[in-house]
Amino acid sequence: MKKLINSPDDVLADALVGVAAAHPSLTVNPSDRYIVRAGGPTAGKVGLVSGGGSGHEPLHGGFVGYGMLDAACPGEVFTSPVPDQILAATRAVDGGAGVLHIVKNYTGDVLNFQMAADLAADDGVWVEGVVVNDDVAVENSTWTAGRRGTGATVFVEKIVGAAAELGADLASAAALGREVNDRSRSFGVALTPCTVPASGKPGFELGEDEIELGVGIHGEPGRARGRLVSAKEIVGVALDAIHADLPLSGEVLVMVNGLGGTPLIELYVVYAAVAEWLAGHGVWITRNLVGNYMTSLEMAGCTITVCRLTPQLTHLWDVPVETPALRWGR
Amino acid sequence: MDTDLARTWVQAIAAAVEKHKDHLTQLDSAIGDADHGVNMHRGFSATTMALADYKADTPGAVLVKTGSTLISSVGGASGPLYGGAFRAIGKALDMAAADPRQFAAALAAGLASVQKLGAAAPGDKTMIDAYAPALAAFRQQADAGADFAAAAVAAADAAEEGMRATSPMQARKGRASYLGARSIGHQDPGATSTALIFRALAETVVAR
Q: Which residues of A touch B32 (CB under 8 A)?
């Protein structure tokens, strides 16, 4: 294992020190392990809290700031945060209008956020939750723990963050989050595995000419193994899977997201193929993100996320945002 | 099961988790995300520290404290599942000493907590596949009038058998379920840590 770390056990703590030092707009609480906007809660605004295992940076801490999250709770690498952290963050961002938890659909995240929400309710803080489950690679049935939350999380955080900034109440913010999730689908592909620092070994092994199709963002193996083919062919597999699940038409928001070990030039190659495929199916990309927004440590590969836009969602996407990892218009 | 035995049991679990940390993580990297050993180790290290200066009059108090500490330190699904189980077991042991029948009832409360939170059933390739047979074996021995040691050994044997039986199963809950049929052929890490917990109980009781 070759990593720029001081000790495998201190990766998260050391990184949080760096986050605090790099971003004066954020405050890091090192004992309760959460990242909040430096200004404290915004009175009368719904507070947005997300979180999950670390190793997906800039998700979620990099999305704390005006127009997106109020707080992020980083767990250990690939391990959900504990209820104490989430409860402390929830209390810290409550501006009197309630708090929305944005949770990726993994058993651990859902359980820990639910426990924190129950404890916050005991304190009189009104909490709603949105569970993101956009990954079409997992069958949503009684045979699995349900679809994973992946790229659509970034869309939910941006769009609901904008609505909250514009004065949406808790119930409508939660409903909007569910709408964005319902209109979004993702598919991921890995070219290499990644290594959790505390484990020291890659999560799986891939041959020189092999790829994992339908991979998640935790170094867990995907649904099937395939041969390395051209970017155009891989994009075809991903978009066929998305299109079969949610027929695409009209205007869409697309994210081509690097998993940590793929250079931007390859992400643009992928984006070109995505744009060509969608144009060929009469689908119009009106907004996009290309870059590393939700990584899986140093894994090579990408996720493709498509959201069917409405005029309201487009408007909210364009609302100014000012966070370490996403900023425009302000 | 009295207060001292509860403490010794938790210490024995912590030692077993430390010893098998890499094995648990290795099992988890095959079908999960390679952190089960690390997370359990962090949780039981925190528990050992929390119990060191914790005054308790009942085995239940020790186990409730254990559960709360696990919830606050493990993360993932294991934190709430194991933490909730120990809290439920502890809440059912609000007495100076529990006989095997009372302990069987407490174990049943723990399993009910796991099933409520995790919504998993036997055969889903989870910790329940070790826990449910262990509880059944313990209860059968207790109902037949066996002593605590015999019941605990039967439970540990049943847990390990259940653990091994998870290999051919296809996971239907937890992160391994994303693999579909590819989860077949791998022993479940959660069932493995559950078997460690029951073996630690048996060894603790027999040593006494």
A: 220
Pair A215, A207: CB distance under 8 Å:
no
pLDDT exceeds 80 at position A144:
no
Q: What is the pTM of this model?
A: 0.91
Find how far residue B62's CA is from the centre of its chain: 15
Q: What is the pLDDT of residue B108?
A: 98
Q: Can you tell me the distance from the alpha carbon of A148 to that of A156, in angstroms, rounded to the nearest whole number?
A: 14
CATH 3.30.1180.20 fits A184-317, yes or no: yes
DSSP 8-state secondary structure symbol assigned to residue A146 = -
B80–A221 CB contact, under 8 Å: no
Percent of chain A with pLDDT over 70: 97
| CB-CB contact of B96 with B2 (8 Å) | yes
Residue in this structure with the two tokens 């529990």, named with its chain if needed: B98
B99 interfacial to chain A (CB closer than 8 Å): no
CB A82 within 8 A of CB B83: no
Q: What is the ipTM of this complex?
A: 0.84
Question: Which superfamily is assigned to A10-183 in CATH?
Answer: Dihydroxyacetone kinase; domain 1 (3.40.50.10440)
- The partner residue sitting opposite B75, judged by closest CB among A82, A137, A139, is A82
What chain B holds in terms of domains, given with CATH numbers, is: 3-207 (1.25.40.340)
* Choice between A104 and B179, residue whose per-residue pLDDT is larger: A104
Indicate the domain borders of chain A.
Answer: 10-183, 184-317
Give me the residue from A143, A201, A219 closest to B177, CB to CB. Answer: A143
